[in-house]
Design a protein that fits this description.
The protein has one domain. Helices cover about 20% and strands about 30% of the residues. The protein contains 2 helices and 7 strands. The strands form 2 sheets. It has a 5-stranded antiparallel beta sheet with strand order 1-4-5-6-7, sandwiched between helices. A two-stranded antiparallel ribbon has the order 2-3. The protein is globular.
């Protein structure tokens, strides 16, 4: 899971859209993050995840953040351009995480990065 997150994060901060974006959902393992010269990520990036991974990405002109989880696990992983490393950002209430549970940690990480 951490490897998948790290790959998604590195790809996302290499090039994305200004608003929160679902990078991968548990049913589709691929997406395009569209770059924009006004954003932190400036070039398009093709992202591929395992089919059981949910990942969300958000950015401002000054920073970016990403969160992810596996539908088979109960931990939310996240990281940002604010420094530090990828780490556990939360534990889901049930034995599995839902995509919506990625939003709050994503907002916190993005705020810390900008």
């Amino acid at each position: 899971m951490k490897k998948v997150f790290g790959i998604v994060f590195c790809m996302a901060v290499s090039g994305a859209a200004f608003a929160q974006q679902t990078v991968c959902s548990s049913t589709t393992g691929a997406a395009i993050i569209s770059g924009n010269p006004a954003n932190f990520v400036r070039t398009d990036v093709a992202v591929k995840c395992s089919n059981n991974v949910d990942a969300r990405f958000n950015q401002t002109a000054n920073g970016a953040a990403v969160t992810s989880s596996s539908i088979k696990g109960k931990h939310i992983f996240g990281g940002s351009t604010g420094g530090g490393s990828v780490g556990v950002q939360g534990v889901c209430a049930s034995s599995t995480c839902t995509a919506a549970q990625l939003d709050a940690p994503l907002a916190i990480l993005l705020a810390a990065a900008t």
